[in-house]
Amino acid sequence: MGWTARDIPDLGGRTAVVTGANSGLGQVTARELARHGARVVLACRDRRRGSAALCRLLHQVPDARAEMRLLDLADLASVRAFADALPFDELHLLVNNAGLMALPRSRTADGFETQFGVNHLGHFALTGLLLPRLLAARGARVITVSSLAHAMANVDLHDPNAEHRYHPWIAYARSKTANLLFTRELARRAAPHHILSAAAHPGYSSTELQAKGPRLAGRHGRERAARLLNRLLASSPEAGALPILHAATAPMVRQDSFTGPSRLGVRGEPGPSWRAPWTRDNAAAERLWAVSERLTGVRYEFPPYR
Q: Can you tell me the distance from the alpha carbon of 79 to that of 131, in angstroms, rounded to the nearest whole number?
């Protein structure tokens, strides 16, 4: 039998932050980390939905050490406020899970194309601002959730905010490629400092992501079709969260690895996932890092390595 949530080791004494933990993959991830002893922060954009998610978690895991804190990845001021207010000196696990998929054209509070801004830049800024706590933990992990949809498009560093041309799915794919390039460059920079940077994807898992884009675009037929396909073909959030949980907790996870479902990348137990060749481009990863620092104003301060 393959790896399951029962194989998660004891996480007592560890602190985790899970973004987008109010529903779907993030909620399952936060719940299972808490079930195995971690102190978990549910980082959620909406207070009402986040509080409801925390209540569900505490009902399912009554002895959980969990709390909800507000985080809007579409607003760098909110990202900074979240990082500044986090009351822990050490952070052992950061799960960059929150995301948006195939939305109509829109902008974040800071003027970024929304999918690139939330899926990549928000998490880039958050990770950088939490870096001192990750360094203090020695052995921390940063797990960034990407998607096989990254294969549809490489990043366009000449037009990261899609000023000239916008297609919802291409913008989504570029943001997911950015997740993998970020994972790669963070692994290169952080490995000497005992931080593991890895990525994961859920395969085809039933979440609200598939229906949200059509709903916001007013395409109700596509929204109904997305919900029908979810019921017929998609795995459950519990199954979709397993690759994320494996990357976050399994003992032999490697730097810059990409974990997904083992059966054609869609279903099955967690295992190594295929990734597009351009996500292994070290020069592109460095260029994306420089662009991300410039756009967010967040610079990663690693101590001198001896």
A: 13
| DSSP SS3 for 96 | strand
Residue 125: how many CB atoms within 10 A of its CB? 23
Separation CA 126–CA 100 (nearest Å): 17
Do 29 and 94 form a contact (C-beta atoms < 8 A)?
A: no
To the query of whether residue 305 is one of the catalytic residues in this protein, the response is no
Identify the H or E element spanning 272.
strand 267-272
As a whole number of Å, the CA-based R_g of the chain is 18
Classify 195 as helix, strand or coil: strand
Q: Kindly indicate whether the domain formed by 12-203+238-296 is annotated with CATH number 3.40.50.720.
A: yes
Tell me: the pLDDT tens digits for 23-63? 999 999 999 999 999 999 999 999 999 999 999 999 999 99
Task: Determine contact, residues 162/171, Cβ cutoff 8 Å.
Answer: yes
Q: Where are the domains of the chain?
A: 12-203+238-296
Specify whether the CB–CB gap between 170 and 282 falls below 8 A: no
Give the mean pLDDT of the chain.
91
Q: Tens digit of pLDDT for each residue in 58-103?
A: 999 999 999 999 999 999 999 999 999 999 999 999 999 999 999 9
pTM, entire model: 0.91
Q: Is residue 124 classed exposed, middle or buried when 0-12, 13-18 and 19+ CB atoms within 10 A define those classes?
A: buried
Query: How many Å separate Cα 226 from the centre of its chain?
Result: 22
Question: What's the rounded mean pLDDT across residues 131-142?
Answer: 97
- Catalytic hit among 172, 204, 300, 305: 172
How many whole angstroms separate alpha carbon 88 and alpha carbon 287? Answer: 32
